Amino acid sequence: MNDTSAEVVVGVDGSDSATVAACWAAAVAVKLGTAVRLVHAVPETGFALGETTAAMRAAAIESLSANAERMLDDVRSAVVAAQPESSVSTVAIAEPVDNALIAAGAHARLIVLGGVEVRLAAAVLLGSTTLRVAAGAQCPVVAFRGSALEPSTAPIVVGLDDSSSALAALDVALAMAEAFGAPVRVVHAWTLASIPDDVPGFPDWEQVNAAAQARITAIVDDAQRRHPGAQATIVWERPGPSRALLDHLDDAQLVAVGNRGRSLLAAAMLGSTGLNLLHNSKVPVMVCDRGVRVS
C-alpha cells in the first residue's frame, strides 16, 4: 500500500520536459512505495515592480483557473500510461511556484522539478525556482535532467565531504539505492577543507590524505550500516568537487549533493559544486539539506 503521507511532489508546467520528469517521479514513487502529487502553480513574475507585478500575477491566476485542470489531467494521463501502478493526485495552487512547492512538500518524501533551467548568472543575480525550493524544502529536491522515464540499476553518485548536508545526501542516496537495486558511487575530491583539525602545524600531505580517507571511509561505513541493502564504493579524486562529480556521471542515473545553506544567497553559493551540477549535469541532480527526512 502506498504511504500518501510521504508523497513524491512534482512541479509541472505543461512542458514536455516537466511531463517526462513527472513520469520519472511516479516511477520513483512506486519504487519507494508511495504516491505522487502533481502540483501546478502561478508562474514566477521575476522582478517586475508595482502595478506591472499585480497585473502579471492577476493574468497568471486567471490563466491558472482556465487551463490548469486540463493541463494537470493531461499530465496525469501521461503518468498513469507510463506507470500504471502509480497512485497520482493533482492540485492547482494560486501561489508563486516556489511557495507552492515548499508548502506541498512539507510532509513529502521528495520534490521533483521538471522544465526548469538554471543559468549561472541568473541564479546568482535573480535566483531561480530550483534554488529557492532547494533552500526552503524540508525534503530532498531533484532538479530533473535527461529523458529517463524510470529509475534503473545504474549507479547513484554522491559528492561527499564531512558536512552535515553531504551526510544527509549520502543517507538519502543509499535509501534510494536500496529501493532501486542500484549501487552508490561516493566521490570525495580533495580540497584544503579536507585537512582534518587534528593535523598539527604544516601538514604532511600523505598524512592529510590518509586522515581524510579514514574519515570518509568511516562515514560511509556508518551510513551503510543504516542501509544494509545498498552497496557503496568510494572514489578518491584530486580535482575540485564539481569536475570530479561531472567526470563520474557518464554511466550514472542520479547525482546527490548537500546544500550549503537555507538562504537564497547560500543556496546560490552551492557555487562550484551544486550550482555547476545544476547547470551542467545530464542526469537528475538531488540537493539535500542537513535536516531532510531520509524516509
Automatic annotation (TrEMBL):
UniProt source species: Mycolicibacterium arabiense
Domain UspA: 8-145, 155-288
PANTHER family: STRESS RESPONSE PROTEIN NHAX, UNIVERSAL STRESS PROTEIN UP12
Protein name (record): Universal stress protein
SUPFAM superfamilies tied to this protein: Adenine nucleotide alpha hydrolases-like (SSF52402)
Family, as annotated: Belongs to the universal stress protein A family.
Stored Gene3D superfamilies: HUPs
Pfam families: Usp (PF00582)
